[in-house]
Amino acid sequence: MTTWEEVVRMASELPEVTESTSYRTPALKVAGKTFGRLRTEAEGGLMLVCGLDEKAALLGSGDPAFFTTPHYDGYGSILVDLERADAAQLRELVEDAWLLKAPPKVRKLRDGAT
């Protein structure tokens, strides 16, 4: 099982990530933009920003670690059950979410460009 603290450590390896809040819940931001949020709603889960195609693929995979709710219909985000998520795949999803929200000059920091 992956904890919120472990997700924060994964994300903190990326440039300019801050742990903050969004909708009064713990969140991850880059350049002030939320890319992940720990949900306290009844279904729980970690919300990560993603493309609609990636969301469809994750939901279509049948992996019980990934789900959505009607609130997120048509929106580029996936909900992740941290108790079921594979840590390596979660790390990749965190980085992908970061890439979607990080401005170009911050993305260059990750790639070592100046």
Radius of gyration: 13 Å
Question: H/E order of the elements?
Answer: HEEEEHEEHH
What distance separates the N and C termini? Answer: 37 Å
Principal-axes geometry comes out as globular
State the share of residues found in helices, binned by percent. 25-40%
Query: How many helices does DSSP assign?
Result: 4
- Low-pLDDT runs of 5+ residues are none
On the 0-100 scale, what is the average pLDDT?
A: 94
Instruction: Report the count of strand segments.
Output: 6
Q: Hey, roughly how much beta strand do the residues contain?
A: 15-25%
If you had to describe this structure to a student in words, what would you say it looks like?
It is a single chain. The chain contains four helices and six strands. The model has no long low-confidence stretch (mean pLDDT 94). It is an alpha+beta fold and 114 residues long. InterPro entries: YjbR-like_sf (IPR038056), YjbR/MT2646/Rv2570-like (IPR058532).
